Structure formats: structure tokens, C-alpha cells
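Researcher: I'd like a structural prediction for the single chain below. Treat it as a standalone chain; there are no partners to consider.
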Amino acid sequence: MEGDLGILIPQLEQDHVAKAALIRRVKVYPEYPGGGSGKHPLVHFADFLRELGLAGKRIATDTDGYMDLNGYVGPTLSRALAGDGG
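Model: Treating it as a single chain, here is the predicted structure.
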């Protein structure tokens, strides 16, 4: 593997991840939906992938977004990467 390990986490987990010495790149997003940014976590993730230079690269994911459970409404990762966060 090349490069530093990175992680995107909700603000609530920030203190826990700070204890992990191997993780060098930590990107924190405010709690959703109540954190005030109004930005969906997958949009934060797409932004983080761009910062890491991974937009347009082949990456592995389990799914293209959150599973449609309990009435989930939100973008897919591919839409968020395309700039369509809605």
C-alpha cells in the first residue's frame, strides 16, 4: 500500500480516532442531519476522495451508497462524486 491511511468519521468519533497512531489523515464531518452543515455524509466522503486524489480512480466499495433501509433518502456515491449531492 502506498500513502497514509485516511478515514472519514462523524465528529462524535474524533477523540477515538485521535488515539490511532497509524491513521494520519482524519477528516471529520458534523453529525448528520443535525450538525448544521446540511451536507450529506456521502458528499463529505466524495470530497475526501477528491482531496486524496482518488476521484476518477478505481476504488472498491460494498455498494454505491447506503442501503435503502428504513426510508433512507440520499445520494449514491457515484452521484456525489459527479457533483450531484441530491
